[in-house]
Amino acid sequence: MKETASSFIAKSSVKAADLDHREKVNFNIARYNKAVPFGKEQFLDVGLARERAKNIKWRTIESLDQYLETFESNFTAKGGKVLWAETAEEALQHIMRICNEKQCKTVVKSKSMVTEEIHLNKFLEKNKIESIETDLGEYIQQLAGEPPYHIVTPAMHKSKEDVAQLFHEKLNVKPGLTPEQLTLVAREKLRAKYVQAEIGVTGANFIIADTGSIAVTENEGNARLSASFPKTHIAVTGIEKVIPSFTDLGLFWPLLATYGTGQTVTSYNTVISGPRQPGETDGPDEMYVILLDNGRTNILANAKQRESLYCIRCGACLNACPVYKNIGGHTYATTYSGPIGSVITPQMRSMKDWKHLSYASSLCGNCTEVCAVKINLHELLLENRSEAVETGAVGLPEKIAWKVWKKASLNRKWMNKGSGKTKDWVVNNLISGWSKHRAALHFPEKTFNEMWKEKKG
Asked: Predicted confidence band at 395 (pLDDT cuts at 50, 70, 90)?
């Protein structure tokens, strides 16, 4: 869809020139960069840890159907219910059915990118159900009427002054509150909702096959409250989040913490294996896990792109990407931004409509360098570009331009024809959009071939 690409370029141009935005983002990423080396100190060999994690994910994804069935069998044995959703719409219908059964009026949600992917808040709002984000960053974004800016830190683009002004406008508190005071305001507002809510919704950082459990990682404790206070708990997760064994958490939890926030381990790490069991004093009466496909099997079927399903959503590639740091998360106009989003979005949604994201990269390779599970992200971006060409997803002007370029490149007489000024005019004016966002090209008056002939005869 041409509008998607043109809109992306227009928003990128505005954001790249916004120095205030750049200052806020670079400030927050600088804090992240300072913390990560300390987190890495817990590993004797961080490279080996990343390699082992990649190998585990490789083994799991190659036998994904078997591991998912093992999870379902073990989870249902403890009274949990597994629902499969091929599309976002199917997942939303599952949730709506449960809400209707429970006569739900209020839902509390912990941070979950998958629920952002299916636009759960908008869906519940349309159906007159209040949905409250309980993660502080997500709560800020909900108040602002914005989607998350970043996979891990949803409000990275806002300063403490921005948040104080937002709370003043939306919650009628005094202007200029400190971060500590703002947190207390949010806590007071949100704590009451846990008791009111009939249903709690979370995501899952990992699906554990051998114990039939989900693992949730957080720093605020809100996910635990969302999963335990309401009578019904719904966990929505992508099918790629599965890992074989409970013992694998000993590797994945520290990696996720270190590459996500620079911590050795996050503050709250919870394993949930179903609804409240006989003799237990807390937990929900019912628990559902919705396993979402929504284009993931498209990636699974693509042998070259399958590696992108190894992602553990640590967000390290976003923090390392020079493009992301300049244009920001909202410019991508999709749930998953940055390098990983540029790889998986065209595969999950539409190559024709979203191929432009794969070109929004300098191909510096920094994303691959910092990936917690060593996904070759810059190579996958190139694979997307190649696939776009092979499937005919590129536009007619681009096809003509490259055809002419190829024809000329294979014919020395054509390459030597015309003056440098003529070539300048052809490339900078006839090739659609070349000089709109780039400096104009300037060709020499003579080619190297012509100069060599003159010198050597």
From this structure: confident
